[in-house]
Design goal:
CATH class of the largest domain: Alpha Beta
Shape: globular
CATH architecture of the largest domain: 3-Layer(aba) Sandwich
Strand order of the largest sheet: 3-6-7-8-9
Order of helices and strands: HHHHHHEHEHHHEEEEEHEHE
Strand content: 5-15%
Number of helices: 12
Number of strands: 9
């Protein structure tokens, strides 16, 4: 499953069949870099030669995906950024993920909040419609000048440095899908609102409200170390700040959990490895 998730983070939405028995670098070389001109022409033909579109797509692919920070990273003003997003949404490259943050309520009309609260603006997130597009704008387009000259060492150096973190977001999306497809059946309940939650201070990978009125919270980590009890406490600090009382807590891990965490006897804590996501491949 680790291999499947890693391959999906690159080739999800890719049109051609790939041989999963090949090494990852070989697959990238064969299907992407060796066909660079073909892919570039196809993907960028819809961008109408507007450099703002490519800048915004790159900014979203390597950033936290929040609208405001993506516009800043791409050096695009808010109005032009929104116009660019609407076009990229229209051609099927991007979608908007709406924030569930609730603005602070004023007890009386002229109430003033702290400066950092007053200045804060709720920001939605922007997401790619396919993992392949995200991979392309994160790793390939920044090295256009060298790849076109059949020089790939700079591409691979950057890829190996940042790829593990890059997969983390795809892992998060798959865990969210796992909750919808599998855990909703296991617990005979249906998430009516899910996905990541973020506000000015806190970000939680997965937060679900269910049809039965339950609150499910989850976090996903695509790292090479086992998750431990300290990380559970950190998640607890987050839901406490939000005044939440989760009915179920899901921890997803690439490489399992510490013995200390496994020995906990919490009836509402559920631990999942990458291998547990295997039903998504059926």
């Amino acid at each position: 499953m680790e291999q499947c998730i890693e391959l999906f983070s690159i080739f999800g939405g890719f049109d051609n069949v790939i041989d999963v028995d090949q090494e990852l670098s070989s697959l990238i070389q064969t299907h992407i870099l060796n066909r660079f001109t073909e892919h570039h022409t196809h993907i960028h033909s819809l961008l109408e030669g507007n450099p703002l579109y490519a800048k915004l797509l790159h900014a979203i692919s390597v950033g936290d995906r929040r609208e405001d920070s993506a516009f800043r990273r791409a050096h695009i003003g808010k109005e032009k950024g929104k116009e660019a997003f609407e076009y990229l949404r229209h051609i099927g490259y991007l979608q908007r993920e709406y924030s569930r943050e609730i603005p602070p309520l004023k007890i009386y009309p002229k109430q003033k909040f702290k400066k950092e609260v007053e200045r804060h603006r709720i920001s939605h997130k922007l997401r790619f419609t396919t993992p392949f597009l995200r991979f392309w704008f994160a790793f390939v387009t920044p090295f256009y000048d060298t790849i076109i000259q059949v020089e790939t060492k700079y591409f691979y150096k950057n890829f190996h440095q940042h790829y593990n973190a890059f997969v983390g977001y795809i892992f998060e999306e798959l865990c969210d899908q796992f909750i919808y497809d599998e855990l909703s059946i296991r617990f005979n309940d249906i998430p009516v609102e899910s996905g990541s939650y973020w506000n000015r201070e806190i970000e939680i990978d997965l937060l679900c409200d269910t049809l039965k009125g339950e609150c499910w919270i989850g976090e996903c980590k695509w790292t090479n170390h086992k998750r431990n009890k300290k990380e559970l406490r950190h998640l607890e600090e987050k839901w406490t700040k939000l005044s939440l009382h989760p009915d179920k807590i899901f921890l997803f891990s690439k490489h399992g959990f510490s013995n200390e965490l496994l020995s906990l006897k919490l009836p509402n804590l559920y631990l999942f490895n990458a291998e547990d996501l295997e039903p998504l491949t059926r």
